[in-house]
Amino acid sequence: MAPPGRLAPAGPLGDKRIVICAGPGGVGKTTTAAALGALFARAGQRTLVCTIDPAPRLADALGVGALGAEPTRLTDQAAHALGITPPGVLFAAKLDTARAFRRLVEDKVADADMRGRILGNPIYREITTSLTGSAEYAATLALYEYVREGAFDVVVLDTPPTAHALDFLDAPRRIADAVKSPVIGWFARPPEGTRRLSWTRLRAGGTLVLRRLGKLVGSQFLDDLAAFLGDFRDVLTGFLERANAIEALLRRPDVAFLLVLTPDAPAVNEALFFSQRLADAGITLQAFVVNRIGPAAGIADAATLRARLTALPGLRDLPAAVSDQGLTDLADAATYLRLVIDAQDEQIARLARSAPGARVLRVPLFKADPSTLVSVRAVSDHLGAAEARQL
Question: Is 192 exposed, middle or buried (0-12, 13-18, 19+ CB in 10 A)?
Fold first, then answer.
């Protein structure tokens, strides 16, 4: 429920405290997240919109400067442009992967010397910056921290730009499975009294590959690995606990998953797969947000087009000014546009038929640059009207 003295936004999103915009890159996900943040802020909610995208799309869309992990309040001018009155309730942040992992280590490791060893170990830096899924897991870590701190009524997360929306959902479980791996456990138990990898253990059965790896990359790499795992074993449980806490967070009833997509067949196929994956995980998809739907096609017949144009004041001399070929070209363009729009409508109808439990929010293709306040305001107004119609 909304805190005392605040108004909940209209529609099914009114009771949500966490809104997660998932989907592949390049489909208008950041603009959608910014527009939803503005929608909550206009209803009086203290709202944070956060992204992990390294590109400055969110900062550009909300009219703020460089973003960091500490939330930045929108300027009064930007807030007024988005219809937020009074200003001061909409914030934006860019999640920092390294910071998210560092805060988890700091939370779970009391010994300052051990924290320093872990954070300075090259194996740790590689895992937290280059490992597949590290960005997605960092996003869930940061989301968890923002919610736990309780400084905001609503947190809207623009998930990392990935080829597959499932990457974000699966990240906590992948990390948890890696932490529970028998291989990690085996390495995390160095011989008593030493933090170095045991060459006796390396010579044991089944370690031929590792011995060859030592010759290839050098003993320093294996020493770094042993030192890291020797220290890190004390926070493995913490990583597992946090992954489980994040999974529980994502299943709360005040969490809304929105899948942002464009109206083409591959995007709809992925959206339906994601919807089923959520259902299998016991999570309800709140809505599909279908972006960039084209306008309705105009007249697609040259003769009708000429008759309509010549009926307009000031265009009675059109036959002398415009050739029949020009009118035919315009009609052909309208015919092509109609085919495109029909194909989009067919895909949206397939989406609605195949996922009857989720709403489908249609967002038209606006003329404004998507990374501007004008575009965010237009999308926000459109989504706000769609929410109000659900009352």
Answer: exposed
Distance CA 91, CA 34 (A): 10
Half-sphere exposure at residue 241, Cβ-oriented, CA atoms within 13 angstroms: 9
pLDDT in tens, the chain (391 residues): 344 334 455 566 888 999 999 888 888 999 999 999 999 999 999 999 998 877 788 888 898 878 888 999 999 999 999 999 888 999 999 988 888 888 888 888 888 998 898 888 887 887 777 766 777 888 888 899 999 999 999 999 998 776 666 777 777 777 667 666 655 555 555 545 554 444 444 444 434 444 444 444 455 666 666 666 667 766 777 777 888 898 889 889 999 999 999 999 999 998 898 888 888 888 889 999 999 998 776 666 667 766 766 665 555 565 555 667 777 777 777 777 778 888 999 999 999 999 888 899 999 988 777 678 999 999 999 998 887 666 4
Q: For the chain, what's the residue count?
A: 391
Closest listed residue to residue 47, CA positions, set 55, 57, 35, 56: 35
Residue 80: which H helix or E strand, with range?
A: helix 76-81
Nearest by Cα to 359 from 325, 387, 320: 387
Question: For residues 206 and 208, what is the distance between their CA atoms, to the nearest angstrom?
Answer: 6
Assigned token pair, 298 = 């105009």
Beta pairing partners, 257: 20, 285
Nearest partner of 264 among 295, 297, 285, 292, judged by Cα: 292
Write down the number of H helices and E strands in the chain: 17, 8
What residues does 157 pair with on adjacent strands?
A: 20, 50
pTM above 0.70, yes or no: yes
